[in-house]
Structures are given as structure tokens and as C-alpha cells.
Amino acid sequence: QAQLVESGGGLVQAGDSLRLSCAASRHTVTVYTMAWLRQPPGKEREFVAGVSWNEVDTYYSDSVKGRFTISRDNANDSVYLQMNNLKPEDTAVYYCAATLKYGTTFWGDFRPWGQGTQVTVSS
After folding, report:
1. CB distance 37 to 110 below 8 Å
2. Residues 6+ apart with CB under 8 A from 115
């Protein structure tokens, strides 16, 4: 059971930026594909961004492409999500997650995930 703890969420205005952080248990970040998922209020959980274990490949949903950047620091077992030009539709609980399935962008393929951090973007 990997432990994933997210932080960095908050309340911001549209157009602002936030950087989310995920602290993971040992080996999780090193050998797993890591991702950020989110669940908007009243909606289903969805994939946001992912990065392969060797950092060769990154994946982004169309809604965040060009605005969000995922990165990982395997040495420190950490994953980050830089979110720029935030929009009200980005409002959601954001989760850090891991999977051994290479190249997937389906949120259900990622287990486990963390407790989540709330991001609220006002217009």
C-alpha cells in the first residue's frame, strides 16, 4: 500500500497559478507512472496529467494541455503539478495517483491515490 499525500491547493482567482505537491512512499515514484486526477464538485473523477516512471513520456487531458505541467522527483519520491492560467472549471479536489500500466490516461487504472487537495478558482 503506497502512501500518497497531496498539498498546495487553495482559493485563487481565474488566471492565477498554483503548484500542487505529492509526497509518496518509497519506490512508488521511482517505478510507477504517476498522475494527477481531479474530481469537480458533483462530477466524476477524471484524468488530468501523467508522467512515466522514467520521465520520457507525459500525458495531459485536452482541457489542461498548455496550462498545466506535471513533473516528478524520483530521488525525493515527489510529484508536482504546476497549474497556470487557472479557470473556474478547474475547480476540483485534486488527487495524486500511481499505476504500473504504462501510458494509460484512464483515472480508474491508477491505484492507489491520495486524500486530495482542494483547488477553487473564482471568476
Report:
1. yes
2. 5, 6, 95
Distance CA 34, CA 58 (A): 10
Distance from C-alpha of 89 to C-alpha of 6, rounded to nearest angstrom: 20
Amino acid at position 53, single letter: W
Q: How many other β-carbons are positioned within 10 Å of the β-carbon of residue 112?
A: 16
* Rounded distance between C-alpha atoms, residue 96 and residue 117, angstroms: 9
Neighbours of 35 (CB within 10 A): 28
CB-CB contact of 26 with 77 (8 Å) = yes
| Pair 26, 6: CB distance under 8 Å | no
Residue whose C-alpha cell reads 491505484 in the numeric block: 111
Query: Could you read off the pLDDT of 21-53 as tens digits, one per residue?
Result: 999 887 666 778 899 999 999 999 999 999 988
